[in-house]
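Bug #2210: token dump truncated for 3-hydroxybutyrate dehydrogenase?
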Amino acid sequence: SLNGKTAVITGSNSGIGLGIARAMAAEGADVVLNSFTDRDEDHQLAKDMAEEFGTTVRYIQADMSKADQCRALIEKAGACDILVNNAGIQHVAPLDQFPVDKWDAIIAINMNSAFHTTAAALPMMRKAGWGRVINVASAHGLRASPYKSAYVTAKHGVVGMTKVVGLETAKEPITCNAICPGYVLTPLVEGQIPDTAKEYGISEDEAVEKVILAKQPSKEFVTVEQLGGIALFLCSDAAAQITGTTISADGGWSAQ
Ligand code: NAD
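Reproduced locally. Full output below:
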């Protein structure tokens, strides 16, 4: 069980982050939910989860595109035994037409935020004598697709950072790993179906079948519950010597 442990999950009011947060809370961890918004429904989500799982669940607003807010999230959490760097966005466009502001935002949110939160969390993990850093990278941390230059760059960067943190903490009871999911049907993927259809000049149904799941030999979406299970495994004693590496959950994508 994760009783007495605090898990901070960035970008966790939706999708994979929320799925991992729910898995951690179900195992008894105290959970810190996060996004850049500060809506009633964000705080209500934390209340509802606390009631459902009987653990402490807080929502802390922080914008993961800002270095100081990344670090402030960890400071405000007060404890961080498990850090899940999950916040991420996507934009699909050819490189020579890729909007500069989208490039900067993707690099900041999908990659730089993991540097800042990890830098802030490692001293807390060292003090506590245990820690897990789990980076939600992507199959795009290991493989490329056209029109996703910023995303593929950021996710490859996160996989690189994962190896470095694994080495820097190798002699300590701390591990750092990246989960590399294939396609999961979350708002992030739903949002890129129209763009993909446009780039390829096909219908949205064809975009799902022929472009998105084309890469995924299982022809099935990965689920957030499966990713929650993998995150819990990485927190288990069985995974104590797994560090500085990646775990793919991609229906065979990266076997190709
Ligand atoms: P999602 O859009 O449902 O979730 C993204 C989360 O990040 C949301 O909670 C959102 O509020 C938060 N977020 C966005 N900008 C933020 C900011 N500036 N500051 C703080 N939080 C911010 O998408 P998802 O699919 O659940 O994506 C979660 C992670 O999983 C991302 O890193 C994504 O790259 C990765 N991923 C997704 C898939 C997939 O197929 N959905 C596959 C591989 C990896």
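Output looks complete on our side. The pocket of nicotinamide-adenine-dinucleotide is lined by residues 11-17, 34-36, 63-65, 86-89, 109-110, 136, 138, 181, 183-184, 186-189 (CB under 6 Å). Marking as cannot-reproduce; reopen if the truncation happens again.
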